[in-house]
C-alpha cells in the first residue's frame, strides 16, 4: 500500500510529464516540404530541420540559406550528399535521388514545381546514370568474380582473374565473366548517349526557371523604360521624371540580382573542386562499389594468406582502394551545363547594361537641356540688370531736375521740357544698346 506522500509524488510526476513533452514538441518546428523523387513520384512531407540535416548531410548554416525569413543572395552550394539551391524565389535541396522544395505552395514557385515534376516524369523511363542502377548489383556474382575491384597496376592480376576494370570519365566500369548478372556502371561504354544524372537535371530546371524569371522581368522593364525615356526627352515634367526615377530604381535592383547569379555561376566554373562536389550520383556509385570491393577483399583474404606472394597482392589492393577513395569525376558535362546558363544570364545582364546606358544618355541629354534653359535665364537676367543700370542713369537726371535749385530751364517754354525728357530716354536706350552690343561682341551674351 502506497503512502500519501508517494501518491502525491506520482501525481506530480504524471502531471509534469505531458508538459515537458509538449514543450519538446513546441520547440521542434516542422515544415512542409515537397519531395520529388527520381522515380517521378511527388508528395508533401512534414519534417523538421534536424531530420533534413540527417537526411541530406547538410549543416545548419546551409539550411539557413533556405529560410524564408532571412534574406540571402543567390547561392549554389555543393556538399558531400546534397546541393543547396537559392536562386531568386527558387529554394531547393537536391540529392542523388530526390529534390526537396520548402516553399512549394508559393504562387511564384508553382511554375518551377510543375516544370520539375514534368521533367523528372518525362525522363523516368530513360536510362539513368551510373549509380542509378548500382543498387541492383548482384553481390553474389561480384563475390564470385573480383572483376569489380579497382584496376591494379600489375597486369598479372587481370590474368589471374580473367577480368578487366577501367575508370573512364569519373565512372567505374567492370567486366564480369559470362553468365554473371550485373548492370553496367558506364552507360557510355557502347557509345550510346549519356543521360544527365538526376541532380543535374534538377539543377538545370532550377537554373532555367531562375534565368527565365530574370529574363521576363528584364523584358517587362525594357517595354516600360524606353517609351518613358523617349517621352521625357520630348517633354520634361514632374510626372515623367518620377516615372523615370522609379524605372531606374527597378533597373538597379534587377541588375544587382542578375549580377549575383552571374557571379555565382562564374565562381562555380572557375572552381573545379566545387563542380566535382556536385557529382552526387557518381560519388554514390563510387562509394557503393568501394564497399562491395572491400567486402570481396575481406572474403578472399582467408584463401590468399597461404600463398607466398600474398603480401605484394595485398599492398597492390590497398593502393587501389586508396586510388578509389580519391574521387575525380570528369566535370565536362556539368561545365557545359553551367556555361549554357552563364551565357544566357550574361545576355540578360548585357540587356540591362544597354538599358542603363540609355538611361544615362537620357539623363545627360536632360541635363544639357536644363543647362541650356539655365543659360537662357542667366542671359535674360544680365539683360534685365543692364536695363536697370541704364534706367538708373535716367533716374539720376530726373533727380537732378527735382532739386530745389533755380535755373533758367524752369522758366523756358513748355517744349523745352519735352526735349529734355525725350533726350534722357533716348540717351538711356542708346546706352542699353551699346551695353548689349558690347556683351555679344565679347561673347558674354548670345
UniProtKB/TrEMBL annotation:
GO terms for molecular function: magnesium ion transmembrane transporter activity. The chain crosses the membrane at residues 377-401, 421-439. Residues 301-311 have a biased composition (Acidic residues). Residues 1-25, 295-318 are annotated as: Disordered. InterPro entries: MRS2-like. GO terms for cellular component: membrane. This is Magnesium transporter. Pfam families: MRS2-like (PF22099). It is a multi-pass membrane protein. Magnesium transporter that may mediate the influx of magnesium. It comes from Musa troglodytarum. Keywords: Coiled coil, Ion transport, Magnesium, Membrane, Transmembrane, Transmembrane helix, Transport. It comes from the Eukaryota. It is found in: Membrane. Belongs to the CorA metal ion transporter (MIT) (TC 1.A.35.5) family.
Amino acid at each position: 500500500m502506497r503512502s500519501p506522500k508517494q501518491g502525491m509524488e506520482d501525481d506530480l510526476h504524471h502531471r509534469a510529464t505531458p508538459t515537458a513533452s509538449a514543450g519538446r514538441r513546441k520547440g521542434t518546428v516542422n515544415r512542409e516540404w515537397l519531395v520529388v523523387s527520381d522515380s517521378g513520384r511527388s508528395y508533401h512531407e512534414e519534417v523538421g530541420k534536424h531530420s533534413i540535416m540527417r537526411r541530406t548531410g547538410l549543416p545548419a548554416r546551409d539550411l539557413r540559406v533556405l529560410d524564408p525569413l532571412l534574406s540571402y543572395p543567390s547561392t549554389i552550394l555543393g556538399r558531400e550528399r546534397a546541393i543547396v539551391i537559392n536562386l531568386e524565389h527558387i529554394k531547393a535541396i537536391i540529392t542523388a535521388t530526390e529534390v526537396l522544395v520548402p516553399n512549394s505552395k508559393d504562387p511564384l514557385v508553382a511554375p518551377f514545381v510543375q516544370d520539375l515534376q514534368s521533367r523528372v516524369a518525362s525522363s523516368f523511363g530513360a536510362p539513368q546514370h551510373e549509380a542509378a542502377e548500382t543498387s541492383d548489383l548482384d553481390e553474389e556474382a561480384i563475390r564470385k568474380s573480383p572483376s569489380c575491384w579497382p584496376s591494379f597496376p600489375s597486369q598479372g592480376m587481370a590474368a589471374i582473374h580473367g577480368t578487366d576494370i577501367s575508370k573512364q570519365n569519373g565512372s567505374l566500369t567492370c567486366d564480369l565473366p559470362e553468365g554473371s548478372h550485373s548492370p553496367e556502371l558506364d552507360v557510355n561504354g557502347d557509345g550510346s548517349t549519356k543521360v544527365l544524372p538526376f541532380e543535374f537535371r534538377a539543377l538545370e530546371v532550377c537554373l532555367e526557371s531562375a534565368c527565365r524569371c530574370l529574363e521576363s522581368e528584364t523584358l517587362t522593364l525594357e517595354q516600360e523604360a524606353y517609351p518613358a525615356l523617349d517621352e521625357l526627352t520630348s517633354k520634361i515634367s514632374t510626372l515623367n521624371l518620377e516615372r523615370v526615377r522609379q524605372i531606374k530604381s527597378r533597373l538597379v535592383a534587377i541588375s544587382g540580382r542578375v549580377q549575383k547569379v552571374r557571379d555565382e555561376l562564374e565562381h562555380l566554373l572557375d572552381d573545379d573542386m566545387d563542380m566535382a562536389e556536385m557529382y552526387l550520383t557518381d560519388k554514390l556509385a563510387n562509394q557503393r562499389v568501394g564497399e562491395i570491393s572491400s567486402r570481396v577483399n575481406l572474403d578472399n583474404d582467408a584463401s590468399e594468406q597461404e600463398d607466398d606472394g600474398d603480401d605484394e597482392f595485398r599492398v597492390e589492393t590497398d593502393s587501389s582502394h586508396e586510388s578509389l577513395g580519391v574521387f575525380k569525376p570528369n566535370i565536362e558535362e556539368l561545365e557545359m551545363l553551367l556555361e549554357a546558363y552563364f551565357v544566357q544570364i550574361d545576355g540578360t545582364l548585357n540587356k540591362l547594361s544597354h538599358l542603363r546606358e540609355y538611361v544615362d544618355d537620357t539623363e545627360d541629354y536632360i541635363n544639357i537641356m536644363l543647362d541650356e534653359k539655365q543659360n537662357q535665364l542667366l542671359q535674360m537676367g544680365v539683360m534685365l540688370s543692364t536695363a536697370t543700370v541704364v534706367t538708373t542713369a535716367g533716374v539720376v537726371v530726373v533727380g537732378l531736375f527735382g532739386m530745389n535749385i533755380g535755373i533758367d530751364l524752369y522758366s523756358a517754354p513748355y517744349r523745352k521740357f519735352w526735349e529734355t525728357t525725350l533726350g534722357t530716354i533716348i540717351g538711356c536706350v542708346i546706352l542699353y544698346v551699346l551695353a548689349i552690343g558690347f556683351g555679344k561682341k565679347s561673347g558674354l551674351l548670345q
